């Protein structure tokens, strides 16, 4: 369709594209049959590395976020469409405020330099205790993790951003940080507290045992959100994944994720052994399920990894194919 519209010099209505803006773009287009033929030829060669083949002068892919579980999207692009291209995440935002900048575009991992005059930041040492006091930029220690508290202009006063940052070093006297997880995305049905990024690591490890499978996206649900529909069973997790390369999951494949969690989290394993936590239930959803979920979320926020709303749960449940 893209090649056809390029050849004809037109832009059809698209979901999320306002009609007025589409009209403005349409006025700028002219038919380009040669470029359309080039596009068809490159697509016929496959889509690995297609971005670089179509735009050979492209030097870098700029992304809005490459932290925590958002990396799965960058990894998917690196392995397919954007093969051979570096990725650069220039800024760090939280709680509606711009907080830091990545001055090292060639680095393999984003290093965020917190800018003291962009917003007022305080930090709660992790793990937080009742008597914990916030510390300031000049009191941070390399290698430690802190919960972020932000006062922004305009914005909220001393707002807990729900982000946990790890101090990775210093640039002159300013700390460099790496966002590692969102506190609201922790799985917890019996006090086991499995952090977002570590669950993702276990999921990716299990995925490596499923030949041909490539992770597109995932979300989790704690069984308490399911209500009576979960049946008479112990509290447990339900995980919804969209995969490329697999159309069905065997019982053995489904069990691998629960097994990986038990290996990676001794507390979870203990609760599973005692029956206090039931076996994880893994569901495969159809293509486009997470596109619809993003549309339902509205604003362009990072994908939640633990759903807390029944409406979103019903939406993802309606897409289950296995």
Characterise this structure.
This protein is α+β, with helices and mostly antiparallel strands. The chain has 4 domains: 1-45, no CATH class; 46-89, no CATH class; 90-182, no CATH class; 186-317. The protein contains 10 helices and 12 strands. The strands form 3 sheets. A 7-stranded antiparallel sheet has the order 3-4-5-9-8-7-6, with no helix packed on it. Strands 10-11-12 form a 3-stranded mixed sheet, with helices on both faces. Strands 1-2 form a two-stranded parallel ribbon. It is globular. 25% of the residues are buried.
Quick structural gist:
This protein is α+β, with helices and mostly antiparallel strands and 322 residues long.
Task: Provide keyphrases for this structure.
322 residues, alpha+beta, 7-stranded antiparallel β-sheet, 3-stranded mixed β-sheet, 10 helices
CA distance, first residue to last residue: 30 Å
Q: With helices defined by DSSP (H or I, 4 residues minimum), what is the helix count?
A: 10
What percent of residues are in strands?
15-25%
**Low confidence ranges:** none
Structural class: alpha+beta
Q: How much helicity do the residues have?
A: 25-40%
Q: Give the mean pLDDT.
A: 90
Number of strands: 12
Order of helices and strands: HHHHEHEEEEEEEEHEEHHEHH
Largest beta sheet, briefly?
7 strands, antiparallel
Number of domains: 4
- Largest sheet: spatial strand order: 3-4-5-9-8-7-6
Shape: globular
Radius of gyration: 22 Å
């Amino acid at each position: 369709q893209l090649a056809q519209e390029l050849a004809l010099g037109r832009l059809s209505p698209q979901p999320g594209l306002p009609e007025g803006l589409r009209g403005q773009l349409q006025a700028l287009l002219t038919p380009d049959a040669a470029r359309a033929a080039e596009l068809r030829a490159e697509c016929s060669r496959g889509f690995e590395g297609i971005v670089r083949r179509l735009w050979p002068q492209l030097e870098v892919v700029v992304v809005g976020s490459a932290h925590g579980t958002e990396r799965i999207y960058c990894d998917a692009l690196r392995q397919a469409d954007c093969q051979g291209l570096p990725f650069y995440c220039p800024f760090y935002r939280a709680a509606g405020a711009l907080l830091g900048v990545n001055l090292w575009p060639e680095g393999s991992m984003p290093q965020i330099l917190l800018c003291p005059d962009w917003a007022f930041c305080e930090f709660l040492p992790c793990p937080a205790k009742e008597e914990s006091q916030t510390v300031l930029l000049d009191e941070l220690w390399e290698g430690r993790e802190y919960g972020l508290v932000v006062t922004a202009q305009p914005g909220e006063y001393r707002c807990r951003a729900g982000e946990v940052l790890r101090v990775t070093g210093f640039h002159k006297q300013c700390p460099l940080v790496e966002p590692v997880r969102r506190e609201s995305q922790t799985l917890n049905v019996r006090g086991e507290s499995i952090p977002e990024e570590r669950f993702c690591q276990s999921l990716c490890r299990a995925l490596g045992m499923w030949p041909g499978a490539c992770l597109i996206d995932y979300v989790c649900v704690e069984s308490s959100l399911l209500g009576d529909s979960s049946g008479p069973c112990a509290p447990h997790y339900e995980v919804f994944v969209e995969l490329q390369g697999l159309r069905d999951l065997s019982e053995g494949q489904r069990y691998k994720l629960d097994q990986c969690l038990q290996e990676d989290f001794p507390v979870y394993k203990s609760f599973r052994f005692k029956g206090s936590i039931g076996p994880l239930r893994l569901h495969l959803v159809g293509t486009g399920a997470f596109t619809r979920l993003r549309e339902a979320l509205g604003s362009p926020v990072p994908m939640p990894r633990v759903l807390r709303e029944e409406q979103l749960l019903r939406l993802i449940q309606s897409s289950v194919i296995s």
